[in-house]
Amino acid sequence: MLKEERQKIILDQVHLHHRVLLTDLSESLNVSIDTVRRDVKELAKEKKLKKVHGGATSFGFMSFSKDDDNIYLLSKKIRIAEKTVSLLSEGQVILMSGGTTNMEVAKMIPKRLSLTVFTPSLHVAMQLLELPDVEVIFLGGKLLHEAKFAVGGTVVNSLNQLKVDLCILGTGYLDADHGLTEFDWEVIQVKQAMIRAAKKTVILSVSDKLHSVQKFKTCDLTAVHTLVTELHPSDPVLDRFREFDLRLV
Amino acid sequence: MLKEERQKIILDQVHLHHRVLLTDLSESLNVSIDTVRRDVKELAKEKKLKKVHGGATSFGFMSFSKDDDNIYLLSKKIRIAEKTVSLLSEGQVILMSGGTTNMEVAKMIPKRLSLTVFTPSLHVAMQLLELPDVEVIFLGGKLLHEAKFAVGGTVVNSLNQLKVDLCILGTGYLDADHGLTEFDWEVIQVKQAMIRAAKKTVILSVSDKLHSVQKFKTCDLTAVHTLVTELHPSDPVLDRFREFDLRLV
DNA sequence: ACAAAAACAGCAAAAACTTGCAAAAAGTAG
DNA sequence: CTACTTTTTGCAAGTTTTTGCTGTTTTTGT
After folding, report:
1. Would the N or C end of chain B have less CB density within 10 A of its end CB?
2. Using CA atoms, how far apart are residues A167 and B201, in angstroms rounded to an integer?
């Protein structure tokens, strides 16, 4: 294999997943970790990507939330994304919120699956546009600078006119007692409208966030139909959630 | 086998697979590795392909999307962007379309200028969010895959409810006789609505595009108030545009 | 603070590159 | 056809690049 070829694959991976682990690259490319390390070092010197401890990230596109600098969360999120994508079916009309986990879902949707997706997230919309068979409708409104997420009356009004098959909610804090919570009031309004606008709601959450509570409440767990985590559905960590009428994936 | 014949095969292989190994070529062409090496060296000198350690790649193999934008045009666009930014003033409410020129404008807006910007372009919106004092409102609707631009009734409806200070139109084809033209009917609808929604309209155009016509017409030059090019306002190339009630910048 | 993972530096083997040279092939007069 | 030049090709010796491995140092998470 040519060095250039390898480096291109690395760059593609970085652009696709926004973050990659050197160990993963080493394995999938069948070269030693040192070689990958050297490649990444070179690419970093050429400003094609950003080298971080344990891997590399694309810089230029976006920097998300603070705790997302953690490379190890990514593999969990990818696992969640895989499971979530398997819930989708041809021709569905769905809603997707923002957040890194939802981004991974967007990246993982197969190229030939036709969907109609409504989203108020710039990042998710951008990613979905890579898929030729997905129709993307952006729910316009005032954009939040950090989250790159549209909020406000316009978004809620648009949502009130919809009734879609599925709503996929990413980022958010989850707790068996307190339900779904957020720290941003405006985001809550949008998420509530999203849940109302969908027949079924799917929540994506890495297990780390399963018992965290924020200031404002989006909804109770009874409003949710499916919970996707990176864990096996039978994992004891999920026990607290079994009392609800929830499908664990 | 003739040398030219061999080199043509090499080029075909490179174009087909984007990369070749010298060892593979040597084997499949039944010549020594040195001969192949010399051939590739020649082709590289003629800029027909790129020689790399162990093989060759096609040009643009390592490039992803944006590198194609040549430096030559970019400098003109930056010049235009500079002039355009100088037209803006504190507190204005403006509309921005998409396109690379408008992107340059977005990049060049000073950090401390507060504005309210409506746009149907994902890229422009994304860029504007880097500015803390700019409020960005995305005009939601169906997104075009290539242009990352929102079109359709939703966008037009939103625009019909606006009356903003300024509309900045990027990309588009301009001609003194035929006015502003485009090749996408849906985009036209949006741009027309944008012009209607603004008190003044500014057109950005690199001089190369000043005499090009496309299939569909957005508006006459009489609907435009300012034309920004990279040229000096007194440049004779702009003479054809002086008969209109246009401010040249 | 400790153990595990990752980064770094130096080394050695393998692969690829360079250069010079000579033989073969092709072209060019006389 | 022959003698000569020119081009092309293959080969060999020496150099550089790439790659994986070693042991050591740094960073990270608990």
Report:
1. N
2. 40
